[in-house]
Specification:
about 280 residues, alpha+beta, Heat Shock Protein 90, five-stranded mixed β-sheet, two-stranded antiparallel sheet, 5 helices, globular, binds adenosine-5'-diphosphate, protein histidine kinase activity, histidine kinase, EC 2.7.13.3, HATPase_dom, HATPase_C_sf
Length: about 280
């Protein structure tokens, strides 16, 4: 009798725990989505420029095409060139719009297989116009030998975007010649590591653990949720994230995530001379 009651109580507790856990996971997803929106808002102007510029070019080029068509002797070569350019501009605007839509999508995609370098390059492209406006160079160092991973792409991309956005904010007072964010990857045994390094104001005397506390912010318009949400996402993938002081000034954020297929490590070349400027990709 007592055993039956105890078992029933245990079963009830077990069910409550499961319900709480799934509610907690749901809340975490909602929070990640909300901070993605906040992040997109912060990226704002630069991202829209990436869409507005090709659209303006399309308008200009289609007006030229109309003029060409109105001429008596139609220059087919010139028209063909214009059409090809129109196509390119349309694709550029469309690709950027797709990246934005993907960023803002409310979907639980779950884990999928993809190339980490493509995901990082995609994230950097979203920020490219904003970086250019702030005269910041984005450098990619894809050092991981086997870049295939199986993660929730959207969520991990949100982490990379957050770290890039923070790195750019931290360099507001950095001399222009040093305004450079380096994103690199490297194999770390069964894990893959993504490092985002900047030459910003760094952390002063602050303990780096404080940065990951919810609502901790030193920015006038900061929310203080970017890093805690990033940590939640990374830990949900079985990984870890930490902030380090960068020798010579600035910060390095290191994200380590498990991926399938362990690789032998390869040393990271953090020197700015090594790597591919995003604009060249
Ligand atoms: P928010 O960006 O809204 O302030 P975050 O959680 O993303 O929220 O960041 C918390 C704080 O961590 C920032 O306000 C800033 O003080 C510090 N921080 C984050 N990234 C960097 C960085 N790259 N360099 C220096 N400080 C940083």
């Amino acid at each position: 009798m007592i055993l039956a009651a105890a078992l029933a109580a245990l079963a009830w507790l077990w069910q409550r725990l499961r319900a709480e856990r799934s509610r907690c996971a749901q809340l975490q997803r909602e929070l990640a989505h909300a901070t993605r929106f906040a992040l997109a808002g912060q990226l704002g102007a630069g991202v829209l420029t990436e869409i507005a510029q090709p659209l303006a070019a399309i308008l200009g080029k289609s007006a030229t095409a109309e003029l060409l068509l109105a001429q008596e002797a139609i220059n087919r070569n010139e028209l063909q060139r214009l059409l090809a350019e129109l196509n390119q501009e349309g694709e550029r605007a469309g690709a950027m719009a797709q990246r934005l839509v993907a960023l803002l999508a409310r979907r639980d995609a779950g884990p999928e297989a993809f190339d980490v370098h493509e995901m990082v390059a995609d994230a950097a492209r979203v920020l490219q116009a904003e970086a250019a406006a702030r005269r910041i160079e984005l450098i990619l160092q894809p050092c991981a030998l086997v870049p295939q991973v199986t993660w929730d792409r959207l969520q991990v991309q949100q982490v990379v975007l957050q770290l890039l956005s923070n790195a750019m904010d931290a360099m507001a007072d950095t001399p222009a010649a040093m305004r450079r964010v380096v994103v690199s990857t490297r194999d770390a045994g069964a894990l893959i590591e993504i490092l985002v390094s900047d030459r910003g104001h760094g952390f002063g005397g602050r303990h780096t653990d404080a940065l990951f506390q919810p609502w901790y912010t030193t920015k006038a318009n900061g929310l203080g949720l970017g890093l805690p949400v990033a940590r939640t996402i990374v830990e949900a993938h079985g990984g870890g994230i930490e902030a380090r002081r960068r020798p010579g000034g600035g910060a390095v954020f290191a994200v380590k995530l498990p991926r399938q297929g362990a690789m032998r490590g390869r040393s990271l070349q953090e020197d700015r001379a090594v790597g591919v400027p995003l604009a060249a990709l």
